[in-house]
Amino acid sequence: MVVLETKSKSGEVAATIAGCLAGVAAGVNLVGGVILVRSFVNDPGELDDSLTLFATLGALASVFAFAYGALLLARRNETGRWMIMVAAGAQLALGALGLLATLVNYDSGYGIHWFAEETVVRSILIGLGGVPGAVTAIVNHSWAAALSGAAFGGLVLLSAALPWTAAYTLTRPDDVVGPNV
Asked: Which residue has the higher pLDDT, 176 or 1?
C-alpha cells in the first residue's frame, strides 16, 4: 500500500510539472506571436510577410496544443500528454533546425533578417519565444536563441514523456466523467 501511494504521488508531481511547463510553453508562444505581429504592424518592411504569417500561425497552433494538452493532462487524459509531447517535439525540432542552420551558415538568399543585432542574453530570451523565437533563430543564425528554444522544448518533452506522467494518466479514477482516451 505504501509503494502504491508513493508511486501515485510521484506521478502526480510529474504530471503537475509537465502541465505547468506546458502552460509556460503556451504563454511564451503567445507572447512570441504577439511580439512578432506587433513588430510587423509597426514596421511592415522589416519583416517578411509570409514568414511572419506562418510563424504566427505556428505560434497559435502551439498555444492551442500546449494549453489544451495541459488541460487534458490535468483531467488525467492520456491524449493531453501526447499533445504536449508532439508540440514540444516540434519546438525541439525547430530549435535543432536553428542550430543546424547556424552550424552550416545557411542563408536563404532572400536577405531576410529579423532582430539581427541582439546580445546573447536577448537572443536567449528570443529563443524562448516558442515558434516565433525558433524561426528568428533560424533566420538570424543565432545559436543562443536556437539552443534555448531547443532546450526548453526538450525539457517540456521530457517531463511529459516520463513514465510517472504516463502512469498518472493511466490510473484515472472511475468516478471521473468522460472517456479515458
From this structure: 176
Residue 98 lies in domain: 2-170
Whether residue 141 has pLDDT greater than 60? yes
Does residue 160 carry a pLDDT above 90?
Answer: yes
Q: Report how far apart, in Å, the C-alpha atoms of 115 and of each of 8, 15, 80, 101, 142 are.
A: 46, 36, 34, 17, 10
> What average pLDDT is seen over the chain?
83
> Using 50, 70 and 90 to split pLDDT, how confident is the model at 4?
very low
CA dihedral 127, 57, 69, 131 (to 10 degrees): -10
Q: What angle do CA 93, 115, 100 make, to 5 degrees?
A: 30
**Residue 179: inside a domain:** no
Query: pLDDT-based confidence at 178, cuts 50/70/90?
Result: low
Task: Measure Cα distances from 97 to 8, 21, 28, 39, 106 in Å.
Answer: 37, 22, 19, 24, 10
Q: Is the pTM of this model over 0.70?
A: yes
Question: Does residue 157 form part of some domain?
Answer: yes
Say if CB 60 and CB 36 are below 8 A apart: no
Which of 30, 48, 23, 20 is CA-nearest to residue 129?
A: 30
Task: Show the CA angle centred on residue 179, arms to residues 174 and 181, nearest 5°.
Answer: 110
Number of structural domains (the chain) is 1
